[in-house]
Write a structure and sequence with these properties.
532 residues; ten-stranded mixed β-sheet; 17% helix; 28% strand; globular
């Protein structure tokens, strides 16, 4: 692995003896889910007197330091990000700022954001019909892709965006992952002429936290979370009108699963192997989709993966709607995106062996791409525990077929690891600091553990290796994420650790336990995938 990895092995030894990562996780899967833990939304008093309490102020002070680039007369020059706190006018239901850390002394509810992607302040405690206005400046006429950085804890909460008095987005639904778990939501494309424009963000239902919205150049370069067909590599299944029906012919529905999931079988290495495929309800045979392989854990099953059964510790919201394919399907749909999922069935309680099952991966990839419209430049793998081991091995041995990997509790042992290929993959790994099965640093070994899975890919992708990796503190009920600097363009490496044990579904946002809806990993994982 080179001198860089050897240097970080010494750091790993210090982490091992300093934080004792081999401690066992309690089997208690209970949660203490407090929707107000981040001070946003849940108990907002919506009894308002619109005659006396609603303030409309069009003379607000905009001479403050922000991340928005100001253009003509204090307007934000776009393409650019527009921070939520940089409004120039507002309509607010009361005169008290409910937040902490940010205050423009006008009653708009601002707080210091805890968004892992950054930002200074977010708007919270929103109620229906409140709005904020912004001024933007367009130097040259053109198309602009709009994405919104938003969060919610209440289902079916929406905003809309109006420009110069015209609704340009319709209802934009916020992902429901927690008040401070943000996602970029694609809100469509708008054509704007040169000059200044008034942008109004309207709370249709309330209960939406807003960190920023972004106007990107409408040429496909903007990061809206949706791959464009123009840069896709279409599979042979693109344009095959009856491809989905051909693939699923003779299959069975998945009891307790989604209506879009089908159980099928395939011959691999002379043996019949089961798998489950999930195809979007509105599948378009002319649109290249992301394809995600989802590998179950030891003692698990493809069935459990497809129905959202808890993979480690029990808790609320473990069902197909919330946690199918480790919650990635829900997280994709929450931001208006979609993907095709394949969940293979392993053999015995310890289900995967790379030397045997790489052939299964190859066979499934060939079958799916021949029948369905797949973007062959955007094939991903994910899994937990033994499934993460398989995904990690594929990220090394089948890097030429994969765009990225998301591994939850990965390990680089238990079966022989393939030799590194010259190809690279984007890599995101997650490990609990008290995981005694797939340790952050495996006791008594060299270069084994979740940390080294991450470091190996960081080294391969040309990232700058830090002198120390920040990790979550045991007892904090929090997660800590680190994005490596200097990675080769298009091949990021990200690692998150959390205060917990051997599980992919920890809440870790100030509350303990596991939850299929509020697990911190799924929205972060989809955000990572969607940018590739």
């Amino acid at each position: 692995m080179g001198n860089k990895i050897q240097r970080l092995y010494l750091v790993g030894v210090m982490l091992l003896f300093g934080m004792l990562p081999m401690c066992s996780q309690s089997s208690d899967g209970s949660t203490n889910q407090d929707s107000d833990s981040f001070g946003a939304g849940g108990d907002t008093d919506t009894d308002t007197d619109t005659d006396s309490d609603t303030d409309s102020d069009t003379d607000k002070d905009t001479d403050k330091d922000t991340d928005s680039d100001t253009g003509v007369d204090g307007c934000v020059s776009i393409p650019a990000r527009v921070e939520a706190e940089d409004y120039v006018a507002y309509s607010e239901s009361d005169t008290v700022n409910e937040g902490i850390g940010c205050d423009r002394e006008d009653g708009v509810d601002l707080e210091t954001t805890q968004d892992s992607a950054g930002g200074e302040c977010n708007v919270g405690w929103t109620v229906a019909d409140e709005w904020l206005e912004y001024c933007v400046y367009v130097k040259e006429s053109g198309n602009f892709n709009i994405s919104v950085r938003m969060a919610s804890d209440v289902p079916n909460s929406t905003i809309r965006i109006e420009i110069d008095g015209t609704d340009v987005t319709g209802s934009v639904r916020a992902p429901v992952n927690g008040w401070q778990v943000y996602s970029d939501v694609n809100a469509g494309t708008v054509e704007l002429g040169a000059g200044t424009h008034t942008v109004r963000v309207v709370q249709e239902t309330g209960n939406v936290n807003l960190n920023w919205f972004d106007f990107g150049a409408g040429d496909g370069d903007t990061d809206t979370g949706t791959n464009t067909d123009t840069d896709a590599v279409p599979s042979n299944g693109c344009g095959v009108v009856d491809g989905a029906s051909t693939l699923t012919a003779g299959g069975q529905s998945v009891p307790g699963g989604l209506s879009t999931s089908t159980r099928l079988s395939i011959i691999s290495n002379g043996a019949s192997r089961d798998f489950i495929v999930d195809i979007p309800e509105d599948y378009d045979p002319n649109h290249p989709y992301r394809l995600i392989f989802s590998w179950h854990q030891a003692y698990g099953s493809a069935q459990g993966n497809a129905v959202g059964q808890f993979p480690a510790f029990d808790g609320p919201n473990f069902n197909a709607e919330n946690y199918a394919f480790f919650g990635l399907k829900r997280s994709a749909e929450a931001v208006g995106d979609s993907a095709i999922f394949v969940s293979p069935q392993g053999i015995t309680d310890f289900p995967w062996d790379y030397d045997r099952d790489v052939a299964l991966f190859d066979s499934l990839l060939d079958r799916v791409t021949e029948n369905l419209c797949i973007d062959e430049s955007r094939v991903f793998t994910t899994g937990f525990s033994f499934g993460a081991m398989m995904s990690h091995a594929l990220s090394i041995g089948r890097a030429d077929k994969l765009r990225g990997a998301v591994t939850m509790a990965p390990a680089n042992w238990n079966f022989p690891q393939p030799t590194n290929t010259p190809d690279k993959v984007a890599y995101f790994s997650i490990t609990g600091m008290s995981d005694g099965r797939c340790n952050w640093i495996k006791p008594g070994s060299t270069f084994e553990g979740g940390m080294y899975c991450s470091l190996n890919h960081a080294d391969e992708n040309g990232c700058k290796l830090p002198d120390n990796l920040p990790t979550a503190e045991i007892g904090s009920n929090q997660h800590v994420c680190y994005d490596y600097d200097g990675c080769n363009e298009g091949y990021p490496v990200k690692v998150c650790t959390f205060d917990g044990g051997h599980t992919p579904s920890s809440v870790s946002n100030g509350s303990p336990g596991d939850d299929g809806l509020y697990a911190f990993v799924p929205p972060l994982a989809w955000e990572f995938i969607s940018k590739l």
